[in-house]
Design brief:
The chain is α/β, with parallel strands linked by helices. Helix content is 41%, strand content 14%. It folds into 2 domains: 138 residues, Rossmann fold (3-Layer(aba) Sandwich); 147 residues, Aspartate/ornithine carbamoyltransferase (Rossmann fold, 3-Layer(aba) Sandwich). The protein has 12 helices and 9 strands. The chain starts with 20 loop residues before the first helix and ends with a helix. Bound molecules: phosphoric acid mono(formamide)ester and norvaline.
Length: 308
């Protein structure tokens, strides 16, 4: 039975697989178009009078600023809600918060810990809910990454991507992307830090797991990595530094990839840890384009989810 306030037909974006491959391709095409329009100074405001609420239970620079800027540029507004400053922090139920917010605003972004919280929130929201990062996924980042690859090298279909490091939320979203965008994903992780096995099984035709990063990176078109210690894992920092020492993306590792391979990192980066400064700030790196594209790809996403 559908309870009061429970939603059945609203389109949410909690995982990359919530939209089809065709819709993803269209989102990227549109993101590039919106980027050009923004650069040319074209005023485009399809979301006048629309409001995005943004609940953040973890820190953020890019996700927060890109969503706020996107809403402003599209003619609407955004409200940042830190969970400490709302009644969520004092125990109000997610389900009740979803019912209340979705009667006031037209879309909601949530950054949180357990992915199940996002699913529960979305179930009770009458407006689209966007995953701004959970412990399991970071789908908005993949929109930007796929846009960035396309802009630099054209379609990623049939190419080889090497993921080096933690089998974390970003890695899971790369696994989703390998299916949606049809590329080969080589994942190099230390033992005990592999992505969830269900993800590997689901994408078995596209994904191969390696323990040796050199094997994963050999002839790759794109090399991507992320922090060794994600938000919420701070107490494991020392242990993780030890485990991930051999998984640093440095000149020696990058030299095994194709000579024109791109390097990506969702940021924030830790120079001298998961990546050396010469790679992050060097010629393979497209990380600043990647971070800028959070803005353009999310504008395309907001338009897709909210425009009437
Ligand atoms: N890449 C990313 O999501 O960055 P923030 O944590 O700064 O939002
Ligand atoms: N894996 C990182 C991504 C940060 C954008 C984290 O969850 O902290």
């Amino acid at each position: 039975m559908v309870k009061e306030g429970q939603s059945m037909t609203v389109r949410h974006f909690l995982r990359l697989t919530d939209v089809s491959s065709e819709q993803l391709a269209e989102l990227i095409r549109r993101a590039i178009e919106l980027k050009t329009m923004q650069r040319e100074g074209t005023l485009y405001q399809p979301l006048v009078n629309r409001v995005l609420a943004m609940i953040f239970e973890k820190s953020s620079t890019r996700t927060r600023v890109s969503f706020e800027t996107a809403m402003l540029q599209l003619g609407g507004g955004a409200i940042f809600l830190s969970s400490d400053d709302t009644q969520l922090g004092r125990g109000e139920l997610l389900e009740d918060t979803a019912r209340v917010l979705s009667r006031m605003v037209e879309c909601i972004v949530i950054r949180t810990f357990e992915h199940a919280k996002l699913e529960r929130f979305a179930e009770y929201s009458q407006v689209p809910v966007i995953n701004g990062l959970s412990d399991t996924y970071h789908p908005c980042q993949l929109l930007a990454d796929m846009q960035t690859y396309y802009e630099h090298r054209g379609p990623i279909r049939g190419k080889t991507v090497a993921w080096v490091g933690d089998g974390n939320n970003m890695c899971h979203s790369y696994i989703n992307a390998s299916l949606q965008f049809d590329f080969q994903l080589n994942i190099a992780c230390p033992k005990g830090y592999e992505p969830t096995s269900d993800f590997l099984t689901e994408a078995s035709g596209h994904v191969q797991l390696f323990e040796d990063p050199s094997e994963a990176v050999r002839d790759a078109d794109l090399v991507a990595t992320d922090t060794w210690t994600s938000m919420g894992q701070e107490e494991e920092t020392e242990e993780r530094s030890q485990a991930f020492g051999a998984y640093q993306v440095n000149g020696a590792l990058m030299s095994l990839a194709k000579s024109d391979a791109l390097f990506m990192h969702c940021l924030p980066a830790h120079r001298g840890k998961e990546v050396t400064a010469d790679i992050l700030d060097g010629p393979h790196s497209v990380v600043w384009d990647q971070s800028e594209n959070r803005l353009h790809s999310q504008k395309a996403l907001l338009e897709f989810l909210m425009a009437r």
